Amino acid sequence: MLEGLQTFPTPRNLKITTIVFFVAFLVLTFVMKPYTDATAAAGVPGVVDLELAFTGARAREIVNLWGFTGLKEGQFDLNLIDFAYMPAYAFFIGGTVLLTTRPLPSGRQKQFGFSAALMPFGAWLSDAIENFNINDMLTTEPVRNITDTMALSASIAATIKFTLLAIAIVVFAANCIRLLVIKRRTGNA
Which of 80, 90, 108, 173 could connect to 120 by a Cys-Cys bridge, CB 3.0–4.6 Å? Predict the structure, then answer.
């Protein structure tokens, strides 16, 4: 099944898709920056802190701090923007992994590379689950009703997301190194 990724999508479509989503990734990163800068400037925990709160008590503390500083609505907006960010990073990172996996010789690294090219899409799913839980926490009134289940669900999903993305990025780097070694050995440097 994964061998189908050797030819699908076509090389041209893969390159175009990866470039388009790279641009979307960059644009959305800059769109999100004022929201993340606002929490840093206010000296309060950011959205990643809420994603990894793990307990209702910690999540309530963060949401209360955002409410006191007027940042709660902005963080809700940031969470909505993140839904557009998900396909951007999934197609961009998945595309780069696939672009560097295809030229590898057959073997374990190539097979794992095909698997790793799909990991950002699993991260996208985990991110969506996390965001639904964060939206619940941001819209729960009063804040004291934010539960451990909400916080733990968001944190587990965030941990899965970050893990899958980290593995995909490491595979991309390993593929690049392997391709450079192959190129040097064959004298195509």
Answer: 90
Sign of the Cα torsion 81, 78, 171, 20 reads positive
- pTM (predicted TM-score): 0.90
Q: 64 to each of 55, 81, 84, 166, how far by Cα in Å? A: 14, 22, 26, 31
At 127 the pLDDT is 96
Domain containing 31 equals 8-94+122-165
Cis bond upstream, residue 103 (ω within 30) = no
For 159, counting Cβ atoms within 10 Å of its Cβ (0-12 exposed, 13-18 middle, 19+ buried), the class is middle
Residues 6 or more apart from 24 whose CB is under 8 A from it? 84, 87, 88, 92
Domain count, the chain: 1
Given the structure tokens 């090219």, which residue do they identify?
A: 117
Asked if the structure places residue 131 within a domain, the reply is yes
Cα–Cα distance for residue pair 113/19, rounded to 1 Å: 19
Average pLDDT over residues 164-174: 98
